[in-house]
Amino acid sequence: MKLSFLFVAISVACGPAFAQGGASQVDGDWIGKGSFQMGADILACSEVKMRFAGTPVLFGVRDASFACESFKQAFPMNDDFEVKANNDVFHAGAKIGAIAGNKLTVLVPGKDEVGTEFTLRREGDFLYYNEVSRAPGQPPVFGMVAIMQKDPNAGSAH
């Protein structure tokens, strides 16, 4: 009974803070482990690093790097998304997602109807990351999942 009450109290305290603070809870450098899928191949990633800028009015993806079984690659990025009223997320003037509770989800359109969906969910000290790129009704072109914590050796991503 006490454990259930503690879980509910933590959920109530953490969930709304994300929504009220826009993308603030994802700000910073994150490090963890994950998996990468391309076609039929699924690779374990011993290190996933991602850097996000998060404020009440901005969600930015700054950098990412992956060390997986057969490849190691860095992806320098500087993509910004606007967080507007009701925590709706916009890019190039179009609504592409939203922040609800402790979850941020965006669907970024791409070439040939291939869109990439990103979901970030903050649970206490952990950031759960999910990314899938696909055309509607088609199998994923690629996918990525990671569980990360703040990198203690890095600063803010602003």
Q: In angstroms, what is the radius of gyration?
A: 16 Å
Overall geometric form: globular
- Please give the largest β-sheet: 10 strands, antiparallel, barrel
Determine the structural class based on helices, strands and strand pairing.
mainly beta
**Extended strand count:** 10
Distance between the termini: 42 Å
* Mean pLDDT score: 85
What level of helicity do the residues show?
A: 10-25%
Strand order of the largest sheet: 1-2-3-4-5-6-7-8-9-10
What does this entry look like structurally?
By secondary structure, this protein is mainly beta. Helices cover about 10% and strands about 60% of the residues. It has one helix at about 1-20, and strands at about 30-40, 40-55, 60-70, 70-85, 90, 95-100, 105-110, 115-125, 125-135, 140-150. A hairpin with a 3-residue loop joins β2 and β3. The protein starts with a helix and ends in an 8-residue tail after the last strand.
In short:
The protein is mainly beta. It has one helix spanning 2-20; strands at 28-38, 41-54, 58-68, 72-83, 88-91, 94-100, 103-108, 115-123, 126-134, 142-150. The chain has a ten-stranded antiparallel β-barrel with strand order 1-2-3-4-5-6-7-8-9-10.
